[in-house]
Request: fold
Amino acid sequence: MPEPETVPEPARILPAELADGADIAALWAPWVRDTAITFAPEPRSAAEVAALIRDRQAAGQGFFVARAPAGGLLGFATYSQFRAGAGYARSMEHTVILAPEARGLGVGRALMQAVESHARSAGAHIMVAAVSGENPGARAFHETLGYTLAGTIPGAGFKFGRYLDLLLFSKEL
Reply:
């Protein structure tokens, strides 16, 4: 596993631990509950997030957190196989979520560097970003990181009583 990335204050990028499950669940919940940036209908519990960390790490996939010097969670990023089956074994899809106060500080970029580096060292060829059509900030973020729009699936998601477009971005690692 690669060494943890270091970034200028205010964050340290570290491999997630099972104990991070509660902090991650608390950070993620408002994004799930209150926005259409994710199509998930319900937030995950701390136990579900801890199980996700355990399962991803057991599968050799990265799961990272960004922590402020005082220890507060600023964000997380993880990845897993894009689709099931051996034909997709080298194609990964990531998730990156930041606390509102961490935006614009380089935390997201540092988390993505950790995820991409980990995936590359594990033999991944491509990283996919699945972005809600209602999240122009994520589109811009991924484009600045070198992701290109691979396609749009109109109405692929459904949340808040309406159909939502899904934009797929990709980057060769």
In short: The chain has a mean pLDDT of 94. The longest strand covers residues 148-159. Residues 12-172 form a domain with the Aminopeptidase fold (CATH 3.40.630.30). The helical segments are 21-34, 46-58, 107-121, 136-144.
